[in-house]
Design goal:
Helix content: 40-55%
GO molecular function: L-lactate dehydrogenase (NAD+) activity
Distance between the termini: 57 Å
Pfam family, one: FMN_dh
Number of helices: 5
Strand content: 5-15%
Cofactor: FMN
Strand order of the largest sheet: 1-2-3-4
Order of helices and strands: HEHEHEHEH
Largest sheet: 4 strands, parallel
Structural class: alpha/beta
InterPro entries: Aldolase_TIM (IPR013785), FMN-dep_DH (IPR000262), FMN_HAD (IPR037396)
Keywords: Flavoprotein, FMN, Oxidoreductase
Length: about 160
């Protein structure tokens, strides 16, 4: 199977004047190349699931990716979105937008277009509810300070029993 190269990205960008996003980046070097290629944004992710269980997740890559691209182009995340709280984590870590494919796909399989719509509504409802729990009034309030880092040595409380 032949794969695309950065030369192909440049050729497409030269011919296509509309919005151009690259999907499936999980490498910081590729992110630098994307900046230089003239694309309008990237979607961090692994094309439908972490094909290698040792690969970095898009969520873990987000803070470094945001530091690299700044506000020069759109930074989105795809993959691992199963709950509204997953969307909030991605937004807090620097994503401009989040793509959620699995939940609406399951909804579509279960109940057609209405099921896909309902799955998206449930994600949004949970995200908005959790924003209220966090004291976040709008998108700007979603920052890394709302997240507890595993590197900070957080240990969930245990219950005596």
């Amino acid at each position: 199977m032949q794969s695309l190269s950065w030369r192909d990205v440049a050729r497409i960008r030269q011919r296509w004047r509309g919005p151009f996003l690259l999907k499936g980046l999980l490498n910081l070097e590729d992110l630098h190349r994307a900046l230089d290629s003239g694309v309008d944004g990237v979607i961090l992710g692994s094309h439908g699931g972490r094909q290698a269980d040792w690969a970095i997740s898009a969520l873990d890559l987000l803070p470094q990716a945001r530091a690299i691209v700044g506000d020069r182009f759109a930074l989105m995340m795809s993959g691992g979105i199963r709950r509204g709280t997953d969307m909030l984590k991605a937004l807090a870590l620097g994503a401009d937008a989040v793509l959620a494919g699995r939940a609406p796909l399951y909804g579509l399989c279960a109940a057609g277009a209405a099921g896909a719509t309902r799955a998206l509504e449930l994600l949004l409802e949970e995200a908005l509810d959790q924003m209220g729990q966090l004291g976040a009034i709008d998108r700007a309030d979603l920052t890394p300070r709302l997240l507890v880092s595993r590197q900070q040595g957080f240990r969930p409380p245990t219950t005596a029993g």
